[in-house]
Amino acid sequence: MQKIIYTIFILLTLVVTSCANKQQNKTETHDDEKDKHDEEHHKGHGEEVMLTAQQFESLQMKIDRITQRNMIGFVEANGTLEVPPQNEASITTVVGTNIASIEVIEGDKVSKNQIVAYLSHPNIIKIQTDYLNAYNHSIFLQKDYQRQKKLYDAGVGSGLNFQKAEAEYNASKAVVKGLEAQLKILNINPSGVRKGTIYQRIGLRSPIEGFVQKVEVKTGQYVEPQTELFEIVNTHHIHADLMVFEKDVYKVKQGQKVSFSVQSIPGKELSAEIYSVSKTFEENPKALHVHAEIENKKGNLIPGMYIQGKIQVDSTNTSALPKNAIIKEGDKFYVFSVEKENEDWSFKPLEIIPGVSDGNWTSIRFMNEVAPNTKFALNNAYYLIAEMKKGEAAHSH
Question: pTM (2 decimals)?
Fold first, then answer.
C-alpha cells in the first residue's frame, strides 16, 4: 500500500512541474516577443523623422529630386603674398658711417632716388679729399706727360722720361676714376668736389619706388659697410605664392583661376590667375610653388601675409545637393529622403560621401543605390538630425 501511495505522489509531482515549466516557457516567449516588438518599434522611430503638414509649412521645407550640376573642382593650396625680387630693395652703405638723420618711417611711400636718410662720417670726407688730391695730382702728371711728349717728338727728349711720364699719368687717371666711382655710389657729385666743395653729410637714396617696410637703424648709430638700413617694397606687383602638394600637381596649370582670403580683409575673397608653375619641388613639404597675379587688389596687402586659397580645376557633371541639405554626424555625412504619408511627411537619413563644393552646392555620392524618383530635403538638415536624435533619446528610456 505504501508503495502505491509513493508512486502516486511521484506522478503528481511530475504533472505539477510540467505545467509550471509550460507556463514559464509561455511567459518567456511572450516577453521575448514583447522585447522584439519594442526593439522594432524603437528602431522604426529612430531612423525617421515625422513632420505634420503644419510643421512642414512653418519650417518652409524644400524638397526635390537629386540635381545634376556642372561642378567646378578645386585644389586647396595655402601660401603667402610675395613680390618679385626686382620689386624689393635693401638699402645699405658702402662705407662705415653714422646716421645723421632719418627722413622716413615705416609705411611711408617713397619714390625712386628719394632721400631716406643722411649719413655723416670722417670716412666720407676722406674719400672726397682723396679724390680731390688724386684729381689735382693727375692734372700735374698730365702736364708733365704733355711736356715730355713734345720733347720726345722734337727729338731732344729722352724716350725713357717720356714713357715714365706716360705711365704715371695713365695710372693717376685710373686712381681718379676709381675714386670718382666711389663718390657716385655715395651719391656725391664729383664735379662739386673738383670745384673744392667737401660734403660733410650725404643723402642715402631709395633705388626703387615703393613703401618703407623696415627701418633698421636709429639716429646717430654707427653702421658697418653692407649693413641693411632700410627695406623698400613695391607692392604694385604683389602676387599670391601658393604651395601645391605632389598629389595635386597634375591638376594645376597656367591660366587657371584662384580664389583666396587674407586676414587683413576679413569676409572677402580675392581672385587671381596663375601665370607661372614651378618645375622643381621643395623638399619640406613636398610641394611646388605656383604664382598667381592678383586681379582685384584691394585693402592692405603686405608681402609675407598668410593666404588660404583654392585653385579652380576641371569641372565635372555630378549629383549635387545644397549645403543645407547635408549634415555631418560623427564622422559620417547624411541627407534626408522624403515621403508623404497621408497628411504627414516622413524623412529618413541616407549616408553619403560628399565631394567638391561650388558655391552653395556640394557633389555627393550615395553609399547605397537609391531610386531615381526619390525626393530629398533641400534644407533644414540640421533640424531634422536634431529631431531624430531627440526621438532616439525618448525611446531609449
Answer: 0.56
